[in-house]
Design brief:
The protein is of the alpha/beta class. The chain is about 30% helix and about 15% strand. The chain is built from 14 helices and 18 strands. It has a ten-stranded mixed sheet, sandwiched between helices. Strand 8 (about 160-165) and strand 9 (about 165-170) form a beta hairpin. The two termini are about 35 Å apart. About 45% of the residues are buried.
Amino acid sequence: MKQIRYNTVFFSLTSAAMGVSLIACKDKKSENTVSEKPMNILYIMCDDHSYQTISAYDRRFIETPNIDRIATEGVRFTNSFVANSLSGPSRACLLTGKHSHKNGFTDNTKTFDGSQQTFPKLLQQAGYETAVVGKWHLSSEPSGFDYWNILTGQGDYYNPFFIDNGEKRQIEGYATNITTDLAIDWLDQKRDKNKPFCLLLHHKAPHRTWMPDTCDLDWKEDSVFPLPETFYDRYEGRKAAELQEMSIIKDMDLVYDLKLADKENEIHSQPGLEKAGRAMYERMTPAQKAAWDKHYDPIIRKFKDDKLTGKALAEWKYQQYMKDYLRVIRSIDRNVGRVLDYLEKNDLLDRTIIVYTSDQGFYMGEHGWFDKRFMYEESFRTPMLVRYPGGIKGDIPEMVQNIDHAATFLELAGVSVPNDIQGDSYLPLLKGEHPDNWRTSLYYHFYEYPAEHAVRRHFGVRTERYKLIRFYNDIDCWELYDLQNDPTEMHNLYGQEGTEEITKQLKEELLRLQVKYDDPIRESVTEVK
């Protein structure tokens, strides 16, 4: 079993010993009896929530008081990253504590092998009651959960279908509200309250197509957001960035993404996306359509009248994208507040670790993009806020990755961490410790190509200051960035005079990580010189 000590105490889960918070209590037999109070686990994960749109990280766009509350009462991780910036693979990394090549779910065409070891199964064995509610997106049915109620596929914002422990049913309403309702109902009515719980609360939002709740449709309508300084990036020296198909200017669809499904059927876009965009409207109830039409019909009429082209069209698309995305975040924040209020009202807040994060980062117009996938900072980096009762408050600068959650939750529960889990427990960091042997570099590997958005396969290493990326498959190129002097990653330094030594060091570190994590890619495409 994996033993990560960092001067922390390990507890074994036997009978009533479930958790890590010790309290003295009295009973009829002895005044010196000690019992262990179980620590619950609530893991809240959104889909594609950028750190730029959480006010605990960035106040340019939106205030998120409920999400921020987790940071205010706990910690903000300032260097949190993913191992593979894509929805399904990220979820597989969470469950297994392993990189994609080890858990087998390298891209969204795969099916997750539910027979393999996951941290919910290990918590179940240790006496925890486990549940997952909301987005699953791993093709197979959940395993290791006493209760699961998941969205079908990517899920729909309006009137979505859920699979309730195997039974499919449609629920009227808005997905973020419904997912929260189901989670609170499980906490309040369905779980065994004599056991500690582990609840994975996974929201579909703010995944594409950023459809706001009807109550949020007009919010921020008069706002104008400044263009990112890299919005008109020309991608000099970055071949893979040039070849992508996730440009707001070129690839963001008028009907599917920007809601211009006009009644006159005069606005047309990419055939498949247009059809899907019009179908999303048709699944609404009459009341939902009425609210939707009240907001979008005037926008559609003005768009037709203005006949925008060129930069004017590109910047109009950016503004519409930002407004809808932020409206979706407003709903997320409101529902996070509902969950926190429930925990507080039911005296669970100080017996529950709460993690808020996203399955990856997202582009808010940086480099002219939406979506994720690249190892560049906006998609590689993810928000992570943790409220740990009895832990420290403030910022934690150490590098963490989504493969670390499994080890953390197991250590928190007093369960030995299996040796094959590749992540490290960040519980010591929550306690204010700074382990001398904490990681100083991160490994990343993205696989899904050819596929939507045309982001080429690549892997790389990131240290505190530098990032080295290798694109492979149908192209063969390297990229090197000095994040201190070039935080927006506009200048590829690979091959430039004076970078020979740092390039050599980074290639050596890259190979070390590929060997450490047993990634077979090193045998065929990595050559360190």
